[in-house]
Amino acid sequence: MAIAVxxxxxxxxxxxxxxxxxxxxxxxxGYMGGRVENPTYQQVCGGNSGHVEVIRVTFEPQQxxxxxxxxxxxxxxxxxxxxxxxxxxxxQYRSVIFxxxxxxxxxxxKAIAELNAKHVWSNPIVxxxxxxxxxYVAEDYHQTYYANNASEPYCQLVVGPKVKKFEKAFAMxxxx
Length: 176
What we know:
By secondary structure, the chain is an alpha+beta fold.
């Protein structure tokens, strides 16, 4: 098993996508990169802790590579907006890859360089690549949030469309 930690805006969106990805055995919503120990959701959302909403993905490298995880990551959020994803604004929603090894760092930097060279987006990627820090698991009600709250307006308007986009683009990589 291996670990990847990704921040791409609201963790509910990323968790809902990665929960459906073959080769992924677990996804946890949480916080990383800040200066407060044991931050609460209110502290993180308020922008006072320095943390980012992230997901910690446990995956089987024999079934899915870190590069494959990054492909999904870049396809399911906007990596060109600094400290913003849609209506979620603040550095707690920044696009970031927290690498667990030098190999992950190199793969992340390579993926960003290749996407920028291909001009996939009209603006350059602003995704930060940072060493992993202590991961704080988010409160229980954030775990599998979309699965448990799909009828909530935010889920219908924001999370659901991202999940549908993922399912269309990555149908062959979904869990059966």
